[in-house]
Amino acid sequence: MAAVVSLSDSSGSNGVAGPVTIIGFPYDASSSYQRGAAEAPAAIRRALYCDSSNLWTESLRDVGAMLVQDGGDLECGDPAATRAAIEAAISAIVAAGRRPLSLGGDHSITYPIMRAVGRRWPGLTLLHFDAHPDLYDELDGDRFSHACPFARILEEGLVSRLVQIGIRTMNAKQMTQVERHGVEVIPMRDWRDELVLSIEGPVYVSLDLDVLDPAFAPGISHPEPGGASVRQLLNAVQHLEAPIVGADLVEYNPRNDLRNLTGMVCAKLVKELLDRMMRETGGNC
């Protein structure tokens, strides 16, 4: 794992309120349509430190002053070996009393992440923002495709509850999975600006960039019209009432971006996720 510039550093502590470690997973070999998401972790960091903005959040907290460790990027290659390495890297983070904020990469990374996080915090709620349910049993013969992570997570009982928000590509096969596993779905057509998510924690947040309408995030591989605005997504994250044990931001494809617009959206989401996660620490994370 290559070290990169850190925001800050701190020793770990036990429990949900531990400090945060950012880690990048430059992996897109399980993408079903386009490559490019492997370039996202580096692009997100560049956007985060871009001089066009600053490191302050909307609640007037300075991300640069937070006790956030940047663990660098995992070296990714062979799919099976990469899944094992992701699980090991996240296991090490949570064993140190820290909470992971993972930068993908395609959405297949969420399954090995949850093998570590779900076992550390039993009874977890998984809050999933996405245009797609990603519940296929397999896609094109691949059970570990980025279209399948939530099927694997549910099969292994890694979470007690899966809530999916922003879905607008459901089909019959995936609806069967929804019914089989009792998935709670808030489709995009039912999303309201005043949406407040009252979930009794702990909760893990998985955020796929294509939950956003392509007008707000052109740098994605699977643009699906009719999505959320950046403001709607920020409001949902900022008003989430539950302790967050970890999060991931996935499916940003810099190759499809325009003037770094989506990269700056990613940086904004990283800052606001960190701000929201710091609530559990009383002000620092």
Which whole number gives the mean pLDDT?
A: 91
**SSE ordering:** EHEHEHEHEHEEHEH
Low-confidence stretches: 1-14
Which structural class fits the helix and strand makeup?
alpha/beta
Q: Beta-sheet strand percentage? A: 15-25%
> How would you describe the shape?
globular
What is the number of helices? Answer: 7
Please give a structural write-up.
The chain has 285 residues and is of the alpha/beta class. 28% of the residues lie in helices and 16% in strands. The chain contains 7 helices and 8 strands; from the N terminus they run βαβαβαβαβαββαβα. Strands 2-1-3-8-7-4-5-6 form an 8-stranded parallel β-sheet, sandwiched between helices. It is globular. The two termini are 22 Å apart. The N terminus is likely disordered.
Characteristic key phrases:
alpha/beta, 7 helices, single chain, 285 residues, disordered N terminus, globular
